[in-house]
Amino acid sequence: MLTARCLPAFCVSSFTAFAIPAGAHASMATYAFTFENDTMVHTDQNYTNGLFLDYNSAAKQHTDDLPWFSLSKLPWLSDRQEMLNKVGYRFGHQLWTPEDIALTEPEPDQRPYAALMFVETSVKQFSASRVDNYRLMIGAVGEQAQGDHFQKYIHRSIDVNEPMGWAYQIDDQWVLNAGFETDRLIHRDSFFSRWQYDISAKGRASLGNYQTEMATGLITRFGKNLDQSFGGIGFTPGKFNETPQYAADGSTGYFAYAGAEGRYRPYDITVDGDRPGEVSTNAEVLQATAVAGLVYYRQRWGTNISLSITSKEFEQSSHTYTATGAWGIFWKM
């Protein structure tokens, strides 16, 4: 029987089993590593760190050609004309902390400590002007996610203040979340012959005991070969830039982007979840995020960097916004 204490090994073994199917190296599958941290913008509070490993299968014309163990086998995901299909698997680890990590007991206007470890599977149907992405995530928060050990080890390694309040982190709990998001091209055009710009709309919704929310936003890009890499710009941790998943095999390009999203989020376990002590926090129901970044990719590899600024995520926060930086690298094999 799988117990909560087994989650780290379960996540790693699950990602390994799913991410390297037979024959993956013979096709243009995509592998990616993403690192997110608020020290990139000289802060250390709220959403403070994220590590993500991704595998996405080669694009297939028909869903029947995708790996059998995936969301692509859901009955309503039949083949769509002129849209390609991919299956993705992700392992992720994320941390949230209060502003003052030297305190041993929580303050009423600061975010609780929280850690999340998860695996996620997704199926993506996409073209040069549309992306539909279905996701299913399972994971755990609390001590079983090993956030305290990870952050303390890192802080000792780089000789900075050790976090002292992990005893008051969000309690152990399994989490399950399902989500859908779509990107639709509004307009794309060329200027100065070789350059392009486009504007797209994004809508998404998720339901579960991790986060429940609905959101919509706009994104604009400026660069080269935009029709070869449509989709993948997002507004939540781990999803600020997933362009590598949609870059066409053998294509090259680069672009700058910016976007903004508004969302309704009535529940967030990293804020609303149970924890020891009398201090409690409540999710800010109406939120907004702005993102900006750069993407550069060649036929077999690429890299990206992004910055996100988010309005306060819990009612008691004394800050009107927080910021996070992200860097990613990917390669195709």
| The CATH H-level homologous superfamily | Outer membrane protein
Radius of gyration (Å): 20 Å
Can you list the strand order of the major beta sheet?
1-2-3-4-5-6-7-8-9-10-11-12
This entry's quaternary arrangement is: single chain
- Helix content range of the residues, please? under 10%
Q: Quick one: CATH class?
A: Mainly Beta
- The name of the CATH topology is Lipocalin
Spatial separation of the terminal alpha carbons: 36 Å
Counting helices, strands and paired strands, the structural category is: mainly beta
Q: Sheet bearing the most strands, described?
A: 12 strands, antiparallel, barrel
Strand percentage: over 45%
Number of strands: 12
Total number of distinct structural domains: 1
Instruction: Give the number of helices.
Output: 3
What would you call the shape?
globular
CATH architecture type:
Beta Barrel
Q: How would you state the average pLDDT, rounded? A: 87
Are there runs of 5+ residues with pLDDT below 50, and where? 1-26
- The SSE string, one letter per element, is HEEEEEHEEEEHEEE
